[in-house]
Every structure is written in C-alpha cells, then in structure tokens.
Fold this protein.
Amino acid sequence: MEKFKSGFVTIIGRTNVGKSTLLNSLVGEKVAIMTNKPQTTRTAIRAIVNRTNSQIIFVDTPGIHKPKTKLGNTMLETAFGSINDVDVVLFVIEATSSEIKKGDNIILEKIKEAKKKTILIINKIDLVKKETLLEIIEKYRKEYNFEAVIPISALKQDKTTIILDEIEKLLKPGPAFYDLDEYTDQTMRQLVEETIREKALKLLDDEVPHGLYVEVEKMTERMTKSEKPIYDIEATIFCLRESHKGIIIGKNGAMLKKIGSFARTDLEKMFDMKINLKTWVKVSEGWQDKENFVKKFKANS
C-alpha cells in the first residue's frame, strides 16, 4: 500500500495573475475571494485538499507589488516568508507577456535563494498563441530547474488533477495535519469578513476598494421560533475617506444593502444556515499605516 503523504504548498505570483481562482479550483470550495482588482488577498490563507493518499495544505499569499503603506509591506513579508516555510512552491505567471516581468524576476530570485521544489503554472493561456507560450516556457526553463511546467486557464479548471498529481509526487510521507473533512483553517469570522469585502470590491468603483477593511463586531447563534439555527452577524466596513463612505452606503443606503444582500446569500450557502447580517460603514483615515489594523494581517497573528 502506498504511504500517506502530506505537506505545505505556497501559491505565489504578482497581483492579479489568478492565484485565488486557481486555489479555489484546486480545493473545490470558495476559500479565497476572487475579484478583478489587484491585491485582493491580504493574508496567507490556508486551504486543504484531502486525497486518497495525501493531504495538501495550500497557502494563498498576497500578490507581489510595490508597497506604499505598512499594510503593503506586511503583505510582501507574508508572501516572501511563505516560500521558506513550505515543501513545494506553485509559481503562477501570466501567459500574456513574452518577457519575464520585474515582479516575476524578484519572485524567481527568492525561489532560487530558497532552492525550493517549484512547479511553474502559466495561467491565461487562452489569451495567447501557441508560439508565444513556447517562448515563455523556454525563457523560464533557462532561469530555474522547475519540477514541472503546467500551462492552464484557471477559469476553465481543466488541469486541476494534473497539478495535484504533480504536487503529490513531490511530498514526503507524513500524517494528516487537519481533519479529513476540513478545507480551510480560516475561522467563520474570517470567512464572513472576506465575503463582505469581496462583494464590496465587486460592486464599488475603482477608487474605493483598496481602502476597504471589514471587521465582524458580533457573531452569535440562536434558534428561530421554528427551532432552526440562525446567525446574527454585525460587521463594520472601514474606509479611508468620508467621500468613500457615501459611495459605499449609496443613495438611500442602496449600495450597502446590495453588498449585505449578496454577502448574506453566499454565507448562507457556505454555512448552510440562515444569516441575519447587519453592516455599518466607518471612516478610519490612514488605517493601512496603523499598527493595530496592520498587525491583523501579519503571518504570525
């Protein structure tokens, strides 16, 4: 009988290359929020894939970008720090550039320093010609001895099994670190906060999302009159400016209601129970540079 294997895998790449979409397709559950805005993931989210002979624990890291705030620096530390703490690295790049971009070069150097077993994932191959893809593969193969190079379209979820098989080959025999029915180590509170933030990111204009932070103030379970469980959740959306607050709330509170409604629908599916969600909006100027906020995003918090 084949020995059971286990290990940790980090997914690393520039902002907006499709890391969270890939993670969700590998896990088969929605554990990372997906939007078309860069820097969506702020913490290293753990997601778990249980297979017949292995348990693979994924760490989805913030995208590599040039930091402008304390939060940005923390996100960068989290991303690069994850390389040293895992067994396998999934390095995600886009097929849409035939040159190795500056951000990708920085990541490559970190991988070389760590000498980690790395699988190169080339995403968005549906947007380029085959010749361009072959050029990219050749350039990257000259830079590092990758264990495998897998071209994909993360949205189509067509290479999930291949990626998981390649990872499993690289893992060592070991125990399951989590229960076999778990798929994330995020708390319910974190999942609620991330879901509300995702809906806000998708519904709001470009000038608002980067300054958004969601905090659950209250989360209690009770029984309805018909003896069915329901969660009462109260959450605050923090933004950077008074003008942003008006946009988030919307005319007669319409936008805030929409964000709450969309979030509640997702959360009820996720937790398989009724949700009573109340949301407020507060202004906290410069929160991205305030230690009491930023410490919540640090890898060891």
